[in-house]
Every structure is written in structure tokens, then in C-alpha cells.
Design brief:
Largest sheet: 2 strands, antiparallel
Structural class: mainly alpha
Number of strands: 4
Number of helices: 8
Low-confidence stretches: none
Bound molecules: iron/sulfur cluster
Order of helices and strands: HHHHEEHEEHHH
Helix content: 40-55%
Number of domains: 1
């Protein structure tokens, strides 16, 4: 993690003006396709008890980390301190629960009063979660994934409308490969939003 921070600081300008701009374009296409499909179903996320911001999602790319942290660094100091405090609490709560093998769900430190403080900078899974979808393997084999609980309540009786995550995963993978090459960074990443935010030196 320290090495990644170092690399990103070293190449900050290059990353900000090329890779992250390209990521923003991919995210834009993703959001458009998601909203187009959701609209056809008549599905609109208005929050639910099983809030996906309570899920311990892991993120595995330099891209998502750098994009989110770009947004985080632009917040004012008080806000950053507040979020970092929540992130440290989240990490500790999970550590304690893990030690007791107790499955728990904890709210993402970026969620405030039900809203994502870095909505425009949120990672891929936060953008794609909710709709039934498909993924195609190189062999052409297709796997289908379900929608979320809120989706089921509204629309589960409707026929599946194609929402293919494959092109987005492929574009992300290609760009990730390129940014890692540019940075000379090859270590695996497995970070929650709380891990990312807590790692910030402000
Ligand atoms: S980054 Fe935003 S959308 Fe994603 S889990 Fe956190 S609060 Fe929710």
C-alpha cells in the first residue's frame, strides 16, 4: 500500500490527465447503460434495508483507488478528518467481528445520511450493483447474475433485459494493465473503501 501511494504521488500528473480521464469515460458509459436498462425495467434505487453500502466490497484496481482518492483529496479538511475517523471505526469493527467469526455489515464511511459523499468517484461495483446482468467468458459461455433485493421487490417478475458487464470489465482490465505498467506496480490489491480512506495522509 505504501509503495502504491509512493508511485501515485510520483506520477500524479500523468495519471490525472490520462488514465483517470479514460476511467471517467468508461464509468460514464457504464452509468449510461445501467440507467438505460434500469429505466426499461422501471427500476429506481431509492435505498432499502439491505443497503449495498453496508456490504464489505473489496476493490482490486489501482484505477479505482486513484480515482476515489482524487475525489477524497478535494474534500475540505474537516470532512476528510470525519470520514477517516469513520473509516478507522469500520476497520476496527470488522477486525473484532472477524476475530469472533461473526458475519456483520457495516456502513461505508463515505455514506452520510444515506448519500454517497463521493458519488461521482465511486468504484465500479457501486455503479453496477442492483441490476440482473451477464458476463461472457472468452469461450463465449455466459453466466447470469441476480439483481439486488430492491430490484426483486419491484421487477423480478419481468423478463431479463440484457445488461452485459463484459465490455466494461474488459476495458477496465486493459486500462488497469496500462496504468500498472506506467507506474511499475505489480502487487495485488484488495481494499475496502474504509482501507483506502484510512490510508490517506490527508
Ligand atoms: S463508495 Fe459510495 S456508493 Fe459505494 S459503498 Fe461507499 S457510500 Fe456506497
Amino acid at each position: 500500500m505504501d509503495l502504491l501511494l509512493e508511485k501515485l504521488e510520483e506520477h500524479h500528473t500523468e495519471i490525472a490527465f490520462s488514465f483517470l480521464k479514460e476511467l471517467g469515460r468508461i464509468y460514464g458509459d457504464m452509468d449510461q447503460e445501467y440507467h438505460r436498462t434500469a429505466e426499461k425495467y422501471g427500476f429506481e434505487c431509492r435505498g432499502c434495508e439491505n443497503n449495498c453500502c453496508l456490504t464489505r466490497f473489496y476493490h482490486h484496481t489501482v484505477l479505482e483507488y486513484a480515482f476515489l482518492m482524487e475525489g477524497f483529496h478535494a474534500l475540505d479538511l474537516n470532512q476528510k478528518e470525519k470520514i477517516r475517523g469513520r473509516a478507522r471505526d469500520v476497520i476496527l469493527t470488522y477486525e473484532n467481528a472477524d476475530a469472533l467469526y461473526t458475519p456483520i455489515r457495516v456502513m461505508c464511511p463515505l455514506n452520510e445520511d444515506g448519500l454517497c459523499l463521493l458519488y461521482e468517484k465511486r468504484p465500479m461495483i457501486c455503479r453496477l450493483h442492483g441490476l440482473p446482468h451477464e458476463l461472457k467468458k472468452a469461450t463465449g459461455q455466459k453466466t447470469l447474475g441476480p439483481g439486488c433485493e430492491a430490484f426483486d421487490l419491484c421487477c423480478k417478475d419481468q423478463s431479463y433485459l440484457p445488461f452485459d458487464r463484459t465490455p466494461f470489465y474488459k476495458q477496465m482490465a486493459g486500462l488497469e494493465q496500462r496504468i500498472r505498467q506506467a507506474l511499475g506496480y505489480s502487487q495485488k490489491i484488495k481494499l475496502t473503501i474504509a482501507d483506502m480512506v484510512a490510508s490517506s495522509k490527508i
